Amino acid sequence: MTNQFKPMNNVVAILVTIAFAIVFFILFMLIPEPENKKASSPAGQSSGNARAFPSGLTGEVLFNRACSQCHTLPPLTHRSPEDWRILVLKMNRNMQQTGKNYLTPEEVQPVVDYILSRQKPA
Ligand code: HEC
């Protein structure tokens, strides 16, 4: 029997190892991005097109645009500043959860200020 098993020599072994490493690396790069990566936004359960308003809008414009997305603009009855703030924050959460355009944290106060300036007297 001349057909004896011979161990691979070291150079060949290293080349084979590198070749496999390259093949695995290429396969790894081909793995598609997981779909749920997009769901990391606060509007995770929405249709995914929720977004902020263009920057630089006044409280009045933001109020008109943001607060008419689901119902007619609410009557500005008299409430305490804190009550209005809580309500706007609650509505803003509605907007995020339903995939509407929503207010950024910096836009909440101008909207509250606008409402307070226009609310009916006590
Ligand atoms: C994503 C949809 C949505 C948007 C946008 C929205 N609202 Fe509402 N709003 C609702 C729903 C639903 C209710 C009724 C249920 C409730 O009271 O939470 C409601 C009720 C209200 C009420 C009556 C409830 C109460 O407590 O007196 C007021 C006032 C109001 N909204 C103001 C606003 C203002 C101000 C904005 C803008 C900052 C706004 N809404 C934007 C969904 C929305």
From TrEMBL:
Pfam families: Cytochrome_CBB3 (PF13442). GO terms for molecular function: electron transfer activity; heme binding; metal ion binding. Keywords: Heme, Iron, Membrane, Metal-binding, Transmembrane, Transmembrane helix. Residues 58-115 form the Cytochrome c domain. The keyword Flavoprotein does not apply. SUPFAM superfamilies: Cytochrome c. The chain crosses the membrane at residues 12-31. The keyword Zinc does not apply. InterPro entries: Cyt_c-like_dom, Cyt_c-like_dom_sf. This is Cytochrome c domain-containing protein.
